[in-house]
Design brief:
Blueprint: H1 2-21, H2 27-54, E1 76-82, E2 95-99, E3 104-108, E4 114-121, H3 127-137, E5 144-149, E6 152-158, H4 163-166, E7 175-181, E8 184-185, E9 200-207
Parallel strand pairs: 1-9, 2-4
Antiparallel strand pairs: 1-4, 2-3, 5-6, 7-8, 7-9
Length: 208
């Protein structure tokens, strides 16, 4: 939305500048040329911003993109879910949606968990590579700590949240960061996860 507002302001400034500098008999022609150049240059940005502003959440529960902005359908997404009282700063009370350029453009306060989904990616074949790109896009808000074992990588914490801080880890109970791929518990670790063109990766704390 901020980019859209900035473009409107730029459009107004260009109009004022051209009107003030052009002679009266050439003013309309000069304005028309300026507006045309402006639209040609900014069309991709205007198109993206309009798509974000008019986007709706996918309401088909059989769709792996259920609950996500419809402009992400066909693209790859990474979601980080937290219990309400353990959300990172700035992500409380709702699930936030961040586009692949880092723009936060939609909030879902009705979702049953808090956190964020970062999407609109394409071309990633490996889960870890996609996750790292999502973390970078968030500005590091969902940075993770992990331990590499011979059998694969184990995520210890995401955004500073350790599962054992959410649910007590004892001899009789425990918790871990569960990895879900397209709504189902993944059968491979994040480093070995093979992606589809529209994969949705979700991290959520699982207890036992």
């Amino acid at each position: 939305m901020s980019d859209f507002v900035a473009l409107i302001v730029l459009f107004v400034l260009i109009t004022i500048a051209v009107r003030g500098s052009a002679e009266e008999e050439n003013r309309l022609k000069s304005l028309s040329v300026a507006w045309l150049i402006f639209l040609l240059i900014t069309f991709p940005t205007l198109n993206t911003e309009w798509a974000r502003m008019t986007s709706e959440l996918v309401d088909d529960e059989t769709n792996s993109h259920y609950g996500l902005p419809d402009i992400w359908e066909g693209n790859q997404v990474v979601c980080f879910h937290f219990p309400e009282d353990h959300s990172p700063d700035g992500y409380q009370g709702a699930r936030y949606h961040i586009d692949s350029d880092g723009t936060q453009f939609m909030t879902d306060s009705d979702w049953n968990q808090t956190g964020a989904c970062i999407g609109g990616f394409s071309g990633f074949e490996n889960g870890l590579n996609l996750m790292d790109e999502a973390v970078a896009t968030s500005g590091g808000d969902f940075a993770y700590n992990a331990t590499q074992f011979t059998f694969g990588m184990m995520i210890n914490s995401i955004a500073g949240v350790d599962p054992c801080d959410v649910s007590a880890c004892t001899d009789a109970s425990g918790a871990w960061w569960g990895l879900f791929h397209n709504g189902k518990l993944a059968t491979a670790g994040i480093g070995d996860l093979t992606l589809e063109s529209d994969s949705v990766i979700t991290w959520s704390i699982v207890t036992w």
